[in-house]
Amino acid sequence: MPVSKKESSACPIDAMLSVIDGRWKGTILWRLSERPMRTGELRRSIPEITERMLIRHLHELVHDGILVRRQTRTMPPCVRYSISPYGLTLVPVLEVICGWGRKHLQKKHG
Amino acid sequence: MPVSKKESSACPIDAMLSVIDGRWKGTILWRLSERPMRTGELRRSIPEITERMLIRHLHELVHDGILVRRQTRTMPPCVRYSISPYGLTLVPVLEVICGWGRKHLQKKHG
DNA sequence: TGCGGCACTGACAAAGTTGTCAGTGCCCTG
DNA sequence: CAGGGCACTGACAACTTTGTCAGTGCCGCA
User: Fold this and answer.
1) How far is the CA of A101 from the C1' of C20 (A)?
2) Using an 8 Å Cβ cutoff, are B13 and A98 in contact?
3) Strand C nearby residues, CB < 7 A
4) pLDDT at A73
5) Cβ contact (<8 Å) for B13 and A96?
6) What is the 3-state secondary structure (H, E, C) of A36-83?
7) How much is the pTM?
8) Which pLDDT score, from 0 to 100, does residue B9 have?
């Protein structure tokens, strides 16, 4: 059921990457690090993503403890995703990754 | 020809991950961060890897400027890979990733 | 002469990941 | 009442990444 292949590795690098791995997970976390969002809202903010992949990724991130899913009403459903306290420990890591990535892009294009 | 799909993204996170992405790249960098190695030596140190994937990954890492390939003699070929100065800037990032990954593994199994 | 090692390549098949599309039950708007 | 949105699911196809296997030219060992 996992989207990422590295799920069961004992290597800490792979363990971390398995949480991030998935075509859209980086983008999703980036969006949610600004503020909590509803499913459809998030989908519209990432134009190329498909609903199916968005939901798969969201559920995996919830399963990994990175996101929290909160359902406020029952009908019509209103689901809101936010970064969990545990997920917040990931944000600085993402920032380090992002910092290096920025320099790497500069190196390639300039 | 790229192993990773995220090659052409403008997102810095994806740009960084595209360098790391590939079933064995983390392990390869881990080995080479200790010391330079020859192709066959590296292959034997990662038992499950296939020769083809090892070489594909190595060549991509060279292409991305992370590794340096040095060919000392001509016949029989003796090729040695080492982390480039640019690649060294990646090592602290890997350490941050590894640190979080270690905690994540503990959380899952303890 | 036969065998294995060296670093590497190509054709092809098997996995794995993502996308497409139809459908769920309920509500609200026109 | 038709049509759309809500969050989500399942079957299936398309695409991407890995693995399998055979083969390259040269050397050294027996």
Assistant:
1) 32
2) yes
3) A 2-5, 22-24, 48-53, 75-77; B 38-41, 51-52, 55, 58-59, 69, 71, 76-79
4) 67
5) no
6) CEEHHHHHHHCCCCCHHHHHHHHHHHHHCCCEEEEECCCCCCCEEEEE
7) 0.86
8) 61
The pLDDT tens digits for B16-35 are 999 999 999 999 998 999 99
Q: At what angle do helices A25-34 and A12-20 cross, to 10 degrees?
A: 70
Q: pLDDT, tens digit, for every residue of B37-74?
A: 999 999 999 989 999 999 999 999 999 999 999 987 66
Facing A98 at nearest CB: one of B12, B30, B97 = B12
Contact A61, A28 (CB under 8 A): yes
Query: Cis omega (within 30 of 0) on the bond before B85?
Result: no
SS3 B15: helix
Contact A65 B107 (CB under 8 A): yes
* Closest listed residue to residue B18, CA positions, set B7, B8, B3: B7
By CA distance, what is A15's nearest residue in B? B101
**Three-state SS for B81?**
strand
